[in-house]
Backbone:
């Protein structure tokens, strides 16, 4: 397998996971890549590795450039095993290599692997390592995505290797965003933020603020395609918006249904938003994965969740979505709970509890006994239109 030169003497030597279809619950329809970068200088540096099942890909790409036993430094920007999984294999080739990581990175790596023989160099923000013609410096980015996360920056190359942040789960032969479809890459970057970094948007904002002070012409994340030229500004601008939780006048209606009544209610709610000229989407939880719904929710002002009552609670699909939402915690939304019921109607209370936990402003709670008629549905639309103002 070949290495891709991304800058003179700096190579992408990662792995392409064409068949990855899910990543801890996140649907990755486009696969992913685990990006590792090899820097050839007086010291040979490997920045991050790959998941262990594709270690051979990493090694074979490195071998097209250099004997892996010549690696002097392995930078571990993040302990999660999609990036650290092949460090033990590299250490077998090059047992005297130094592992450079954050303080939490050292702790994490020692918990993941038998690292008793590994030589560590622990770095803090602003620390610098000279590797010959180049210097590498580090920015600790706690919780972007784990407590150990950090970015590696090369001033001479204006190159940032920030690991997860700015990544996309996207397998492709191309290495740069400008070689692929920009709209698709941005959609995947948005999905990545919504499903991975959203709960840490405050920390992400701090990281982006530091990153924006750097002189940059390339951001090479650890998943997906590399941002260069004008695309660097575009992804930073997108993160400014996502980190700041900027929403637009848009509603996402998420529901499941048993006999169609809750679906009809979803349509009535849709009509109210439509009448008010508010962008609106309906997502049936049997048809759309929760991780894709999160991409739509990231900039939606209104979140509407509907479930009929089943066994005195909400439907499992809705519960799954709400628990996912609760973990990812998008803030400051206006919410509507809705659903039909036969006798108890407890699903509505369960949905409301999650809205309360998330401190959402509840615009309405709409419940209907058994099957709404045409006039009931029309009234529902009219009532909601009035509430929308
Ligand atoms: Fe790509 Fe947090 O690992």
Residues:
């Amino acid at each position: 397998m070949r290495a891709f030169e991304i800058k003179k003497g700096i190579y992408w030597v990662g792995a392409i996971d064409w068949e990855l279809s899910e990543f801890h619950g996140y649907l990755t329809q486009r696969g992913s890549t685990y990006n590792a970068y090899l820097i050839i200088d007086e010291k040979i540096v490997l920045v991050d590795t790959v998941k262990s099942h594709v270690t051979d890909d990493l090694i074979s790409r490195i071998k097209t450039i250099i004997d892996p036993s010549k690696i002097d430094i392995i930078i571990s920007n993040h302990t999660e095993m999609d990036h650290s999984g092949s460090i033990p294999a590299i250490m077998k080739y090059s047992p005297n290599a130094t592992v450079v990581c954050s303080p939490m990175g050292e702790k994490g790596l020692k918990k993941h692997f038998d690292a008793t023989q590994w030589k560590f160099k622990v770095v803090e923000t602003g620390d610098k390592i000279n590797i010959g013609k180049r210097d590498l410096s580090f920015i600790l980015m706690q919780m972007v995505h784990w407590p150990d996360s950090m970015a590696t920056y090369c001033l001479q190359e204006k190159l940032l290797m920030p690991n997860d942040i700015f990544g996309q789960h996207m397998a492709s032969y191309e290495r740069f965003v400008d070689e692929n479809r920009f709209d698709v890459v941005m959609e995947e970057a948005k999905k990545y933020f919504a499903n991975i970094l959203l709960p840490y948007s405050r920390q992400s904002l701090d990281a982006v603020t530091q990153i924006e002070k750097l002189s940059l012409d390339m951001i090479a994340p650890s998943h997906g395609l590399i941002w260069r030229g004008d695309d660097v500004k575009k992804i930073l601008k997108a993160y400014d918006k996502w980190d700041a939780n900027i929403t637009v006048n848009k509603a996402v209606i998420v529901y499941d249904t048993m006999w169609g009544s809750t679906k009809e209610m979803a349509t009535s709610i849709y009509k109210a938003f439509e009448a008010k000229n508010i962008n609106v989407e309906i997502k049936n939880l049997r048809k759309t994965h929760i991780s894709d719904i999160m991409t739509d929710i990231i900039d939606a002002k209104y979140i509407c969740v509907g479930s009929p009552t089943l066994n005195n609670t909400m439907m499992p699909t809705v519960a799954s979505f709400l628990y996912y939402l609760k973990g990812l915690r998008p803030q400051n939304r206006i919410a509507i709970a809705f659903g039909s019921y036969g006798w108890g109607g407890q699903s509505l209370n369960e949905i409301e509890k999650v809205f309360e936990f998330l401190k959402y402003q509840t615009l309405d709670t709409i419940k209907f006994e058994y099957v709404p008629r045409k006039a009931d549905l029309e009234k529902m639309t009219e009532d909601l239109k009035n509430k929308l103002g």
User: Anything to note?
Assistant: The two ends are 60 Å apart (CA to CA). Residues 182-197 form the longest helix (16 residues). The chain has a mean pLDDT of 97.
